[in-house]
Design goal:
By secondary structure, the chain is mainly α. It is built from 38 helices and 10 strands. The chain has 4 domains: 195 residues, no CATH class; 143 residues, no CATH class; 92 residues, no CATH class; 219 residues.
Length: 738
């Protein structure tokens, strides 16, 4: 009945609504007239006065004429609800006074109950816990509950059949404190709270262990929040006993795992365990060897990926992904990253010797934020070396196309996309790339759309670019089912991709309403005193000390002054515009003195009220996370000088969504970083804007060495950071829509 009522309630016409209101909410409304009020003894007159005052207060909660309680835009409905308030409350009072079976004490109790009912409604209405329309239902339900109470019958049906707001006001009324169904009423209310607040179910059951539906509630939690149930499962109390005595297979497994010290390590396999497709003992055996455990995680992930294709989301899917990610990084990526200086690949990548192509695949797609450029190249190479037939479409089939968009994006970022696509026939690769740009709005995040934008900027193959642009255009103009969010995503990508061709003469600033991307105005980088503050992060390894000295040497001239401090240096411009560069010294990393110097410098800048608008990371990629963690949100120009800094754009944009970012897709070179720093600081000292195309052209001409020129080509200027541009444009579009 409830589901039917809800369906018609959403779709009813005005006439149908009024009919339902008459039949279900205020029965016999029109047939009920005012009952003459008998003479009220002086001792009870105050109650009647208070009730009348409460009625008037309710009307004044929302009225335009001073007589009608406005609960909707429909005059008829407003009049009906107001009539219930006036007629039913009056008649309740009159019947109490007229009923000879009531003792004086009974009359006191019920008059006080009516007054409390109305006062509680006023409070709940003001706190937005009950609607205006619910007033009719509240009054009628109170009348029904009063009739049941007089017969010494349970009011539980009333509590069960109303929503929480109405039920709670009636249940809390002192007139029903000794009702025969008090315990069941409380349980019904708790159940309603559980439905409204599923995240609090176990806390509610823990505090009310005798609730009649405890077992069902616990089972519901088992399929929603396994981690929380695990925490309660070992409790030596009533809720723990209920969990342990459950007949549900999933609850029983979680209860059993709660007795193990490593119980959470089994969680990625809960879905398989609950279906009997794997045993607790087999997982326990895998836990004895990190490599075996990683392989089990991968095989389970591949099975889950197949189910996800059929809209069957396994239990604890996210838990499996996160555990697989952490194991990929801790067991493999961290080790091969740490051996980045090892000349022998056989030594550096030895840890990967026993991994299959699919197991290597997950190192890439789940280790995106941690894997170094050289580590990625080594893993990518080994994936295809270990395949019986080195076809890339066969690789994707092995993993059920799990994270295939991420793999394509990473291949593009590391200049391996053409190699990847060449390992399958043209028809298959075309179909794959079309799929790559489809369904970009299917997730709640922008991750897929940003990956497509970043990939496009990395693709030099004109035919492939045209294919992607054609599919974007098809999604935008030919898909009649596209929703507003999808339209926004595809429209922005279409405009941004077209702008990459100068012949299209597209001004993204005007078209998308975003900040200039080709030029960073000098004025935007200045503080109120006209000073530009630049912060550089250095690290205390051997290379860090070398590049720090090289950095200072470039500023030992008449245009700059160097001021030394124990933990940092300040480089001030002597001529031209005011530019101040602050750089921590690369002190001993083994004693974490470089980290201390960075923190102390940040504290020093804060104490002076200085906010860096240009931030430069100098150091290897494994230090980049530390720099990003300390990044000031005031930064408007950011140079990521490490290898593969391009992979960290999204992390930077979360902190500085409007920043112009320079980064390398491959190897970060000291000579290139310093060249960029020299040009940027000189432009700022001369009071000029940072014109990125001009800066790029100047540096391209400067690097005569073919190797340096090749490495510089891997550096992406701000106006080609398509993922960053897309995020800025999307945020602007969403802000403009509201």
């Amino acid at each position: 009945m409830n589901l039917v009522f809800q369906h018609y309630f959403r779709n009813m016409t005005r006439f149908a609504f009024l009919l339902l209101l008459t039949l279900f909410i205020v029965p016999n409304l029109h047939s009920q007239e005012f009952i003459p009020m008998p003479k009220v003894p002086l001792i009870r007159q105050l109650f009647h006065i208070n009730i009348d005052n409460a009625k008037e207060k309710i009307i004044q909660l929302n009225t335009y004429d001073g007589k009608t309680f406005f609960v909707s835009n429909d005059t008829t409905i407003n009049n009906e609800v107001t009539r219930v308030l006036r007629v039913h409350i009056h008649n309740l009072r009159a019947n109490i006074e007229l009923d000879s079976t009531f003792s004086d004490n009974d009359k006191f109790i019920w008059l006080r109950a009516i007054e409390t009912l109305l006062d509680d409604y006023i409070f709940n209405y003001k706190t937005k816990n009950i609607s205006g329309l619910a007033l009719s239902k509240l009054i009628i339900s109170f009348e029904e509950a009063m009739a049941l109470e007089r017969k010494q019958q349970s009011i539980a049906p009333i509590i069960n059949n109303n929503d929480f707001a109405v039920s709670n006001i009636i249940f809390q009324n002192a007139a029903f404190a000794n009702n025969a169904g008090y315990k069941r009423c409380k349980d019904y209310l708790l159940l309603k709270i559980c439905k409204k607040q599923p995240e609090n179910i176990l806390r509610i059951v823990n505090n009310n262990p005798t609730i009649f539906c405890a077992d069902s509630l616990i089972t519901a939690v088992a399929y929603r929040n396994q981690e929380e149930l695990y925490d309660y499962a070992s409790s030596p109390n009533a809720i723990g006993d209920t969990i342990r005595n459950s007949r549900d297979s999933l609850v029983r497994i979680i209860s059993r795992l709660a007795t193990k010290n490593t119980g959470r390590m089994y969680f990625p396999f809960l879905d398989l365990l609950s279906k009997g497709k794997i045993t607790i003992d087999s997982v326990g055996k895998a836990l004895e060897n990190n490599e075996v455990y990683y392989k089990l995680l991968v095989s389970s992930q591949i099975k889950y990926a197949e189910r996800m294709q059929h809209a069957d989301t396994p239990l604890v899917y996210k838990t499996l992904v996160e555990k697989l990610r952490s194991k990929a990084v801790e067991e493999y990526i961290d080790e091969i990253n740490a051996l980045h200086d090892e000349k022998s690949d056989a030594v550096r990548f030895k840890k990967l010797d026993s991994l299959s192509p699919s197991e290597l695949y997950y190192l890439c797609v789940l280790g995106e934020e941690e894997i170094y450029t050289s580590s990625y190249i080594g893993v990518y190479k080994r994936i295809f070396e270990r395949m019986k037939v080195s076809r890339s479409d066969s690789l994707l089939k092995l993993v059920n196309y799990d994270y295939y968009k991420k793999f394509i994006k990473m291949a593009a970022s590391y200049n391996e996309l053409e190699d990847f696509l060449s390992r399958m026939d043209t028809t298959t690769s075309d179909r794959l790339m079309r799929s790559f740009v489809n369904d970009l709005a299917s997730k709640n995040t922008l991750e897929d759309a940003v990956d497509v934008a970043d990939s496009y900027s990395s693709i030099s193959n004109k035919k492939l670019r045209n294919l992607i642009l054609e599919q974007i255009q098809k999604n935008l103009f030919e898909d009649t089912t596209i929703n507003r969010r999808s339209q926004t995503i595809y429209r922005l990508l279409y405009i941004i991709f077209l702008s990459m061709d100068p012949n299209n003469h597209i001004d993204l600033t005007k078209q998308l309403g975003i900040n200039p991307i080709f030029v960073m105005p000098n004025k935007l980088l200045q503080d109120s005193s006209g000073r530009v503050t630049i912060q550089q992060f250095f690290y205390g390894d051997k290379d860090g000390k070398h590049i720090f000295d090289a950095f200072l040497d470039k500023f030992r001239n008449e245009n700059w002054r160097i001021i030394q401090s124990p933990e940092w240096v300040e480089v001030q411009s002597r001529r031209g515009s005011k530019v101040h560069i602050y750089a921590n010294k690369p002190l001993d990393e083994d004693q974490e003195l470089d980290t201390k110097a960075q923190k102390d410098l940040i504290f020093y800048l804060d104490s002076l009220g200085l906010q860096p608008t240009v931030v430069i990371h100098r150091g290897h990629s494994y230090y980049l996370k530390s720099t990003i963690d300390q990044l000031s949100s005031s930064a408007k120009v950011i140079l990521l000088g490490s290898c593969g800094g391009y992979q960290s754009l999204n992390q930077v944009l979360q902190i500085c969504p409007q920043a112009h970012i320079i980064s390398s897709k491959q190897v970060g070179m000291g000579i290139i970083n310093q060249g960029l720093i020299n040009l940027i600081t000189e432009q700022l000292r001369e009071g000029k804007d940072l014109n990125w195309p001009a800066i790029w052209k100047g540096l391209t001409e400067k690097f005569d060495d073919a190797k340096d020129k090749e490495k510089f080509n891997d550096y992406i200027p701000p106006y080609k950071n398509l993922g960053a541009i897309f995020i800025m444009a999307y945020n602007q579009a969403m802000d403009s829509a509201f």
